[in-house]
Batch of 3 targets.
Target 1
Amino acid sequence: MRSLFIACLLATACATPPGSARVNVTEVHDIEGPRVLCVVAHPDDETVFAGTLFKTATHLGGVCDILLITNGEGGFKYSTLAERIYGLELTEEAIGRAHLPRIRREEFLEGCVYLGVRDVLFLNQQDHRYSQDPEEVLAHDAGVWNLVEVELAIDRALREGGYDFVLGHLPTPATHGHHQAATLLALRAVNRMDLNARPAVLGATTNALLKFTELPGYPEASALEGPALVFDRTQPFGHRDKLDYRVVVNWVIAAHKSQGTMQLAMSRGERERFFVFDTQTPNAHANAAVWFDELTQPQFPKKVYGPSAGTNASSN
């Protein structure tokens, strides 16, 4: 039944014409937990906070939406193994750029099903190339992204979503310029909001980074004082605590089959670290700390099995 649901979802989503489009992935009723919006550049960027999204949606009763800026066409360089799966020479730039927007959309939506994401807003801007310079897309004369369209889309999402938190990639100088740009655009949008309506904005990384102060040259990307907030993917659960949240993160990674280097991230990055930005949002760090404390609480009840399950003192 699950595979049929995914197939129907993807068929509907991929029939959507190019341009901005919203796709409902998971029906959510009676929201009890945090309302979260992720603003990311590429399909597969959601993996950096996959554990946080999954547990927020499935345990806390929250709602998680994703605004995806680009179409992912720039990922053709690492599609070698996916060529056999999709029957296309995706590592040829022209072929990859022509077909990867559809393919990566399918892969992304499959992963969103596993995470319990509610809605995805596709902006379908060009994923032009790898660079560590955010100005390649943010400069007024860059001409890569339609910045007016992107800014209006983020503004509208924030206005209509009533979000408590906005997540993006932590913008460090060594990260992809698109990642930096997506987070900067989210921060600028939040700073345009009325002060009392602003959600807290958090930047995420799976690197063992213990301190983040700011992105040089971009004062809007300054962090509040206080420790990083951490989601531990190794929180154990299940029979004899043999499982942890790396399992579901791996499911999401596996969905992105066109991105070979992404697959190498399987079971790596045991902790998702978040730094809270200074957007003058009232009680931003304190509210985020409460959320992350709730994410440490046990999700699954312990079950006891008898001899029919093959459990005894020496069995695993």
Target 2
Amino acid sequence: MARLQMSGDGRDAVVLLSGGLDSMVVAGLTRETGFRLNALTIDYNQRHRREIESASAIAELLGAERHVVLPLDLRQFGGSALTDEIDVPKQGLGDDIPVTYVPARNLVFLSLTLAWAEALGARDIFIGVNALDYSGYPDCRPEFIAAFSEIAELATKAGAQGSKFAIHAPLQQMSKREIALEAARLALPSEISWSCYDPASGDMACGLCDSCRLRKAGFADAGLIDRTLYAA
């Protein structure tokens, strides 16, 4: 499991909190480890804006010192089914990078997370990327996280003065089954998280997009009840 072999000792950490299950578990691990939780949610004008409400609920539940919801309108760029007039695929996972990929999203988001961490005096950043049960996005790979750790030191005043930033991705090598089990171990109410890319009417998840399929399979494989309301 992802239980971190470290202690926050009351230090500040910044968590990239999307409102999804993975980011909820990472935020829970951050708190469990003894860090002061500061949560950053990027409102990038995405199709699945329901997750912003979930991020706020998660931050409140976990007692975040501060929760910043930062507006960033990526619909100005488009290029993704989440930020443009492109249908969200519902046929299941394929072999290619899907159109739900948002160009350079995690690179942009981690840069903003790093900026807040430096301003806050924090040196620990947590992100819920996953490289096993995911849609094949290139910015979820371990190589990317390792490369960004180097960039963090090169691009910041703190790094130039000898401080090191730690980019923690504790779910990177976990399956969705293991992530669902970790949520249960942390006693997190997973139903307040949101995974769906294309919400249906009545505040229901579509049940057919890649993210819904991965979530449902993870809970089923874990033998846990997924209390998300699905339209399909």
Target 3
Amino acid sequence: MNNISHATIIPLIGGEAIASAQVFGSRPDYILSYDVFKNNEKHLLNYWNNEVPYYVLDKGGKAPHTVDVISSVCPCAGLSLLSQGYGDENENNQWMIKTAEYILGDVKPKVFWGENAPGFAGKIGKTVREQIQNIGKDNGYTMSVYRTKSLLHGVAQIRERSFYFFWKGDKTPILNYFNRPYTPIEEVIRSVTSNFQQEPINKKKPSDNAYYKYILNVIHDGMTHLEYSSMIGPSSVRDADAFGYIEKMGHNYKQVAEWMEANGHPEEVDKCMYKYKKLEEGGSLMRRGVTVPKDRIGAFVGHYPMMLTHPDEDRFITYREAMTIMGLPSDFELVDANSQNVNHICQNVPVQTASDMAREVLAVLEGKRTMIDTPYMLQNNHTQKEEYVTPKHTLESFYAE
């Protein structure tokens, strides 16, 4: 067992903090946060029996001592294309800047690392990226950014992620790349054996949903949920939900509207006609319908907790199954489990993804990774290539390229 000490700041529900605890072999020395996040973090505090010291920085708390490693999961909505008003000016970006200033300027660990939306590693994250890189530079740290997706870490989600790392000193490591096989999402859900928190998040039956009923009764002439789930094969994320599947099978929403009118769903007629006209005019639709799990899903956010079904049973997934999808331990509890709190599960890093990154941090501290004489490195796990600034060039010229 190693003797690496670690802590976390803004862990939210705790996927990254739990991964760090598993990799480093101990709970964090302490948790740092801000008052606005306490509702998200009550689940993690409860998981560790409220035994890990919790310091709220804007309520007078502060880190009691330094540690080797500090991790963070700052809110990523500011740089996520899935959010309204995303971009450099989004107020959610302040948390990356605020935490970097405090951790790198005051606590000074050997490594500070965090996770954010894929946009952080791209064009829309350029300003924030430069700001926190300069904070690191002013405090004696190099920086690396690692672009990846959870599918490459054995997680059945097409979920793009960016990780950022600050390394004390003047060199930056080259981290390993990953392409792990993943367990199909339907098998992940079937693997849940715990009876704890096994209440469906959405209490309705999938087969009672008007659009899914159309698929079962009209497109497939009276199929059951189990028969449909067994019949379908892997498809694109767009085609996986009820709306996408209806379109994929060549049915238009004018036909669907007529069926809705004749089969006791008059409230859906105008909605169907709106969809029909929107598509006829060349527009696009937000598709968030009943989704039957097959092979993999998109990022487990938005409609998924409420609309993802069990692969065999005519019901939606449970709280426990949602937590399992994100890799949370089988004894992890969602405090005050309800449909409002369930989004806390989504605002998270899958534990498996975070574990790979935590193991890389450990390998660097153990001297097992090649160190490069550069202040900044960008690694892309999709292409398994890295770019970095050489001593002959400036960081400004790197960004300009």
